[in-house]
Automatic annotation (TrEMBL):
Protein known as: Chemotaxis protein CheV
Top-level taxonomic group: Bacteria
Any single GO BP term: phosphorelay signal transduction system
Source species: Pseudomonas parafulva
SUPFAM superfamilies for the chain: CheW-like, CheY-like
Length: 299
């Protein structure tokens, strides 16, 4: 079978700079607002990459020194610049940057994976070109995880014997271009006693699906990020639904955005379910539902 071609979705990026002046970007869907840097209250014993806490419309907002968090030189004016306020993965924070440049619109296929050899310490999930200038797309999940890793969550409870058996019989592929987010999902599966296949892009995921097709490890459940370079989760899902050999796959879209906001688009793409990152008990519950659906389809 021929490998399905990459599908493209429209994507909006917010461009910003740090002290070096090189352009960086963040998915606009992850940005709630942009404000001048307000006065901050420094908290004792806080993480060194947290500049302090701001009060925004009566609510506290942790402010991350993005330059320090990703190993860049500190801003020339530590009290200047502006905050990019993000609301992702069930948390809200301000990213202190030198300046916001503009919003650009592109296709997901315009975002390429990071250069080979970037390594696990890299804080980018992709690169693109805007007006012939290289732009790095920030891995904000990795930044946040490095400062405030989520506390260990208690398992959602002892699985019923039948559900545990169904999960053990499932072959799961986890797709995410953020190494941190990928490892969180893998950790949940291992806690359940499950091994899984992984991929860092939709293209790699399709290769895994093709490699396992017709074997005893043929994939039947796909857990995919949405905000990925080259082919995002929506386009990936549509590609699977249009490919006869993969139409039957159970697809759970796993997003750092508010899943309620993305639910309609996920449904139109053909996903079976959508979940906001990251809750280990909720991911477990979704996987049980998926395993039950796969088992029912076989009957």
């Amino acid at each position: 079978m021929a490998t399905p071609n990459a599908r493209a979705d429209a994507l909006s990026l917010l461009l910003f700079t740090l002290r070096s002046g090189k352009l960086m970007a963040i998915n606009l869907l992850k940005v709630s607002e942009i404000i001048p840097c307000p006065s901050l209250t420094k908290l004792p014993e806080s993480h060194p990459h947290v500049k302090g806490v701001a009060t925004l419309r009566g609510q506290s907002l942790s402010v991350i020194d993005l330059s320090r968090a990703i190993g860049e030189q500190p801003l020339a004016d530590p009290d200047g610049g502006c905050l990019i306020v993000t609301d992702i993965s069930r948390s809200r924070q301000g990213l202190h940057v030198q300046a916001v440049s503009r919003i650009v619109h592109c296709l997901s296929t315009d975002i390429k994976p990071p250069p080979y050899g970037s390594g696990n310490r890299s804080y980018i999930t992709g690169v693109t070109r805007v007006d012939n200038a290289l732009v790095q797309v920030l891995d904000i999940e990795k930044v946040i995880h490095g400062i405030a890793p989520p506390p260990p969550e208690a398992p959602s409870g002892q699985l019923a014997e039948e559900d545990a058996s169904l999960l053990a019989a499932a072959n799961i592929l986890v797709v995410d271009d953020s190494q941190v987010a990928l490892q969180q999902s893998v950790h949940t599966l291992r806690h359940l006693g499950l091994e899984c296949h992984t991929a860092r892009s939709a293209k790699d995921a399709i290769n895994v699906l093709l490699e396992q097709q017709g074997t005893g490890l043929e994939i039947n459940i796909v857990v995919s990020d949405i905000e990925m370079s080259e082919m995002d989760g929506y386009a990936f899902t549509r590609t699977l639904r249009e490919t006869p050999d993969f139409q039957h796959l159970y697809v759970l879209l796993h997003t750092s955005l508010d899943s309620a906001m993305s639910a309609e688009k996920a449904k139109l793409a053909g996903a079976n379910a959508i979940l906001t990152k990251f809750s280990s008990p909720e991911l477990t519950d979704c996987l049980v539902v998926a395993a039950r659906a796969v088992h029912a389809e076989k009957r």
